[in-house]
Amino acid sequence: MVGWSDFLAHMDWFGLLDLLLSAVAALLCITLHELSHGFVAYRLGDPTAKNAGRLTLNPIKHIDPVGLLMMLVAKVGWAKPVPVDMRYFKRPKQGMALTALAGPVSNFLIAFLAVAGFSLLFRLPSSVVSTLPFGILLAFLANVAILSVGLGVFNLIPISPLDGSKVLFSLLPDKAYLTILRYERYVMIAVLLLTISGAFSRPLSWLITKVLGGFCSLCGFRQGIEYLLVFSNLFQYIRF
Fold first, then answer.
1. Distance between CA atoms of 165 and 185, rounded to whole angstroms?
2. Residue 6 in domain
3. Which residue would you say has higher pLDDT here, 143 or 125?
4. 39, 100, 185, 231: which one has the fewest Cβ atoms less than 10 Å from its Cβ?
5. Number of folded domains in the chain?
6. For residue 91, what is the DSSP state?
7. CA 14 to chain centroid
8. How many Cβ atoms sit within 10 Å of the Cβ of residue 120?
9. Which residue range forms the structural domain that includes residue 162?
């Protein structure tokens, strides 16, 4: 019979810590994404999200279990949509487009800040960077950057009900816009199946890499994308 001491000795502690870092980073990205939607809608006159208790930093309010799992596995995913009633907006379609854009924009801002913080910390003396606590911090920032860009890029796909569709549909006639909104729940099932099948993997990976590379260049950290990918996996960091 295997005792607790043997069980604990053989556990992959770095693997568990890496999963925990990814989960916390994903929750941060999801929470700020949905909070941004609700806040912009509220500022435009729609109190629906506020009344539903969605203007909060509590991640439990925003989690979609499947979307969170996809973020951890595929690096792209989604959260529980913030309720929005476009009838409160003075210009409904334009207000909906701005509300939709707020989520991805917040993710790109978070990712840029994470890359900037990573690049500054990475320039510290190697005796500091090579310590485990510092490595954990760098791994967390790398995960935030990658997952936040992934969430932002994925949600900009112009397929209903993703955020990009709200921007694209704002250019359509009202009748066509309302018809698409009526059937978006069925389209979401197709989007979910395509995501699980990996149909989006290659183009999204290319886009995520390009966006991260652009942020690294802005921070004067031209080879930063390589380090971000290494440090996003704590086990790879330990070997590095």
1. 13
2. no
3. 143
4. 185
5. 1
6. S
7. 23
8. 12
9. 20-239
Task: Write the CA distances from 68 to 31, 33, 216, integer angstroms.
Answer: 11, 13, 26
Is residue 223, in this structure, part of any structural domain at all? yes
> Which one-letter amino acid corresponds to residue 166?
K
**Residues 168, 94: contact at Cβ < 8 Å?**
no
Cβ(230)–Cβ(145) below 8 Å:
no
| Whole-structure pTM value | 0.82
34 is catalytic: yes
The CA distance from 162 to 104, in Å, is: 10
- Give domain status of residue 13, yes or no: no
Say how far apart CA 161 and CA 181 lie, in whole Å. Answer: 8
DSSP one-letter string for 22-82: HHHHHHHHHHHHHHHHHHHHHHTT--HHHHTT-SSS-GGGT--HHHHHHHHHHS----PPP
- Asked whether residue 78 is domain-assigned, the answer is yes
Task: Report the chain's C-alpha Rg in angstroms.
Answer: 20
CA distance 126 to 192: 43
3-state secondary structure of 198: coil
Task: Determine which one of 18, 34, 46, 163 is catalytic.
Answer: 34
Instruction: Find out whether 238 and 14 touch, Cβ atoms under 8 Å.
Output: yes
Convert the pLDDT of each residue in 200-218 to its tens digit.
778 888 899 999 999 999 9
